[in-house]
Amino acid sequence: MRRWNGWGDESIEFALHADALAFLAQRIGAGRPVTDAGLAQARAQIGASRLPEHALIDTSPEVRLRNALGQSLPDWLRLRYGVIGRAPDGVAYPQSAQDVRELLAYATQHGVALIPQGGGTSVAGHLTAPSGMPSVAVNMTRMRQLLYLDTESQLATFGAGVFGPDLEAQLRARGYTLGHFPQSFEYSTLGGWIVTRSSGQQSLKYGRIEQMFRGGSMETPSGTLHLPTFPASAAGPDLREMVLGSEGRMGILTEATVRVTPAPEYEAFHAVFFPNWHAAETAVRQVVQAGLSLSMLRLSNPLETTTMLALAGHKKMIALLEGYLSLRGCKGGKCMLMIGVSGRKSLARAALREALVLTLPHGGVHVGRTMGEKWKQNRFRNVYLRNTAWQHGYAIDTVETAVDWPRVEIMMRAVEAAGAAALGQYGEQVHAYTHLSHLYAQGASVYTTFVYRLAGDYEADLARWKSLKKAASMAIVDNGGTISHQHGVGSDHAPYLAAEKGWLGMSTLRAVFAHVDPQQIMNPGKLAP
Ligand SMILES: Cc1cc2nc3c(=O)[nH]c(=O)nc-3n(C[C@H](O)[C@H](O)[C@H](O)COP(=O)(O)OP(=O)(O)OC[C@H]3O[C@@H](n4cnc5c(N)ncnc54)[C@H](O)[C@@H]3O)c2cc1C
């Protein structure tokens, strides 16, 4: 059963061993565990529905609660402290495009907002019910079939509500993969990925979702937008670009056609350590600019490297590894790089060899596959750390951006420092660490994690989060980064969007939304409020 107030399946726990807790306590102080609100207490806060009846809409309080929020830290605070606030007045589970059209007609007639919903894994406040009008969460997860696989063109069409594991299982059974593995893979959906411009861990080989999305169908209040597939087209602006990143503001994506590739014959993940950040960053830049056929490069800064080793357990093995690395020049400031290869065995191995050769002049120490394979095993389990950290009285939040290479290190330092200063106002320390997980010839994504102590009170923790978010977002904007490389805009990043789109860009976006949705019933308040 899925947790109603945290990440993932109720039966899965991520254990934090005593040494890891001691490490955190030494960095930022001992956590102060909070008593969570119970499900009944949260459910009792869901007010009476304001909706006229409709056969497709369920207005029961628990269903509304379970579809009210996403996974951002403010969403968590509301669930954990039992301060639910606004919730949708009902939830619909359409099974066809016709059902979606009926819901649009109903919403238009009664002045009801529709909040399209995939897996509810948004970390940017995409799913909050609007104030001032009734709303329905349109949960798309019953539209999850593989509708068509064109093996000649390597295109697959799915219902947009298909979850990651279900999509991959349907493709793997036929010898194919999409290759899109965001860390939220187990609970996020194809439609959600497309409309938030998501990026998966192996984007270096398979591309971002933008490169995979080839066409589909979106139901809007003004009619159906059909996006036919072409291998390429010079017929004016590409309308798929309007759907990508539209965050539910234009309509509901019901079907999506994506580019698939044959499932890889071989896949391996290796770890390489570097003596310091400068050497590591120079090395990965050269590797990515060499254009090798790799599937992943993920570089952790010194504090993330230390944190990952501290959380790993296996104390004796890690001590042996650190002893060996120290002899090879990788000491206190060492940085860990994960390199992934996927595809034809001979090509993948050749690409890995080339990459390892390129790391050597920068002091790269290759330690083989063990750590890489462990990372792969846990790639979707590490997320459960958020639940465990909360139980021990710590909050975890992340911010992410992307910049060109000359600004990567500046950005990393600025975002980490902004977080430390923001929590410093409350007399608290923050454990902030960063990795680059999506690398391009031009630059990289910069992804920072903040761990800090909970205050133990909803208002106080919300104030801490707001200070942290504002400081980190301002650091991103001031240093020329995009407000999101992969999580999207929602409501949390909306105040910073104009900094990169400009006045004309913002008014153009609003004009497009107003054209397809003249009554402004589609996910109001998000992206470009
Ligand atoms: C622990 C964790 C790790 C994450 N890791 C990554 C990562 O590695 N990479 C990454 O890119 N993101 C990541 N995310 C963010 C999140 O998973 C993505 O934004 C994901 O694409 C959201 O998909 P979803 O199906 O859960 O959509 P939701 O959260 O349900 O919705 C997100 C937005 O999409 C809209 N929407 C959803 N479905 C449709 C549809 N069919 N039609 C129209 N609009 C729709 C919603 O209205 C909303 O605005 C992570 C989140 C968490 C909690």
Automatic annotation (TrEMBL):
Protein name per the record: FAD-binding protein
UniProt cross-references to InterPro entries, sorted A to Z: Alkyl-DHAP_Synthase, FAD-bd_oxidored_4_C, FAD-bd_PCMH, FAD-bd_PCMH-like_sf, FAD-bd_PCMH_sub1, FAD-bd_PCMH_sub2, FAD-linked_Oxase-like_C, Oxid_FAD_bind_N
KW Membrane (keyword) present: no
Pfam families attached to this UniProt entry: FAD-oxidase_C, FAD_binding_4
Annotated family: Belongs to the FAD-binding oxidoreductase/transferase type 4 family.
Membrane listed as a keyword: no
The entry's keywords: FAD, Flavoprotein
Record organism: Duganella levis
Domain FAD-binding PCMH-type: 84-263
